Amino acid sequence: xxxxxDARRPPTIPKDIKDGPLFxxxxxxxxQYRPSPAMKLARELxxxxxxxxxxxxGGAPEKLIGHSVPNFELDRVGGDRLELNRFxxxxxxxxTFWGVACGPCCQEAPHLTRMHQKYSDRFAIVAVxxxxxxxxxxxxxxxxxxxxxxxxxxxxxxxxxxYFVGAYPTTFFVDRKGTVVDYQVGFDSGxxxxxxxxxxxxxx
Length: 204
Description:
The protein is an alpha/beta fold. It contains 7 helices and 7 strands. Helix 5 links the parallel strand 4 and strand 5.
């Protein structure tokens, strides 16, 4: 896919470079340049550049891969504040963005509690309500479903502007150093989730 959507353009030769080794190198690079199919189509349509994202549903969560997980401080269901970096405290973990009005999010939630119950001493789980739903709505859902994993409220701006979330749930996986190592859009199964958690905590 990266070959098809390669956005590279032919090397440009500055006007002040008219000869010499650098000129020869840039000229050879221009001769070897072959536009990708997407770039060729874009130029034929009159566009100068193209771009693409990896994630379904829009957004650009892939931008965070390899970077420190963005810190935030939000109110938890129950009233106290949660600061992400302090909560992680050297543990690997996941940060998932969800909403009560999101069907797959509601399917995922009980499995997050089960993982929290089993691995909370070695693995951190934080669910950020990105729908900005009322605290009463979220608290009622948590009570009815006996959710015990940490849930924070008012995460809509953090979701869209800091984590580039475009679809729910979007889950980010963070290593012990606080680096985002992967993300997932949607929810597959509780088994797949636990396999990932076990891998990150080193449990076979």
